[in-house]
Design a protein that fits this description.
single chain; alpha+beta; OB fold (Dihydrolipoamide Acetyltransferase, E2P); 2 domains; NA-bd_OB-fold; membrane; transmembrane; NfeD family protein; Membrane_assoc_protease
């Protein structure tokens, strides 16, 4: 059997190449494609008469399965972060004390957070009042007034 005429060997070579690239390039995606290519290569060895369209369907199906399973695994058991709120600026603001810049009337207004202003929701407060951020959803900060004793 000439190796140039053996699609199974091409699939296995592609799997090895994708796995090697995964080791060199940061990120985690090519490993799923390497898995799919390896499984397709094994199928091509087991079923040497498998046509090219069958191989392509096998690769696409196994790639989809691998990406779905891998994505679920990384979501559930992914690496722990030293700062899980790193990219969630609104969540990092919880507990901060802010100043009302546009009076909160009818439950809506604006507050100053650092050097910017954010939309805010909460009880009616006059401009200049101090409040604490208790929640953040869809870019709107929910605040509560700070009592004088605090």
């Amino acid at each position: 059997m000439d190796w140039l005429d053996a699609p199974a060997l091409w699939w296995l070579a592609a799997a090895a190449l994708l796995a090697a690239i995964e080791l060199v390039v940061p990120g985690v995606f090519l490993v799923f494609l390497a898995f799919a290519a390896a499984v397709t290569g094994v199928f091509s060895l087991l079923f040497p008469d498998l046509p090219l369209w069958g191989q392509a369907i096998s690769f696409a199906a196994w790639a989809g399965v691998a990406v779905a399973v891998g994505g679920r695994w990384y979501r559930d058991f992914g690496p722990a972060s030293a700062d899980p709120l790193l990219n969630d600026r609104a969540a990092r603001l919880l507990g901060d004390v802010v100043t009302v810049t546009v009076a909160i009337e009818g439950g809506r207004g604006r507050v100053r957070v650092g050097d910017s202003e954010w939309p805010a929701a909460g009880p009616d407060l006059p401009s200049g009042a101090r409040a604490r951020i208790i929640a953040a959803q869809n870019g709107v900060l929910t605040i509560e007034p700070i009592l004088i004793a605090e």
